[in-house]
């Protein structure tokens, strides 16, 4: 049985647009000296998604899936973008399995989500809205329901 996670890829900082062929070029080049392709800028996230689709034979960002090699895959790919920070967000099947992994030049930083509830604030107290149902488990019994 597999464990599915919903993944999303986000550009954080660094080189956002790169030549579509991914070969080293100079700012004055109009065509890639290695492959001859015309140099047009493509968003780095689009390139990474295309590379993953070619490597995995599917796109892990369309729907939740099992992508157990995501750290290795992303580390390999980000070596090709040494100054670009990419965040990979994950939302797993289990409640609270929320994380982000930042990738830079083949390295990864892992962070779990921290869910923080605000402290009690008396000024935020409000009266219940008339007609709005309160969950049955939270109802306070009245004398009529206690006598049944």
The biggest beta sheet is recorded as: 4 strands, antiparallel
User: Per the principal axes of the C-alpha atoms, what is the gross shape?
Assistant: elongated
Number of strands: 6
On the 0 to 100 scale, the average pLDDT is 85
**How large is the count of helical segments?**
3
Q: Structural class, please?
A: alpha+beta
Oligomer: single chain
Beta-strand portion reads 15-25%
Instruction: Detail the poorly predicted runs.
Output: none
Number of domains: 1
- As a whole number of angstroms, the C-alpha radius of gyration is 25 Å
Record the strand order, biggest sheet.
1-4-5-6
Distance between the termini: 48 Å
Order of helices and strands: EEEHHEEEH
In helices, the fraction of residues equals 10-25%
Describe the SSE topology.
Blueprint lengths: L4 E9 L3 E3 L21 E3 H13 L13 H9 L6 E8 L5 E7 L2 E6 L30 H4 L2
Antiparallel strand pairs: 1-4, 2-3, 4-5, 5-6
Structural notes for this entry:
By secondary structure, the protein is α+β, with helices and mostly antiparallel strands. The chain has one domain (5-112). 18% of the residues lie in helices and 24% in strands. It has 3 helices and 6 strands. It has helices at 44-56, 70-78, 143-146, and strands spanning 5-13, 17-19, 41-43, 85-92, 98-104, 107-112. The protein has a 4-stranded antiparallel beta sheet with strand order 1-4-5-6, with helices on one face. A two-stranded antiparallel sheet has the order 2-3. It is elongated, with a radius of gyration of 25 Å. The model has no long low-confidence stretch (mean pLDDT 85).
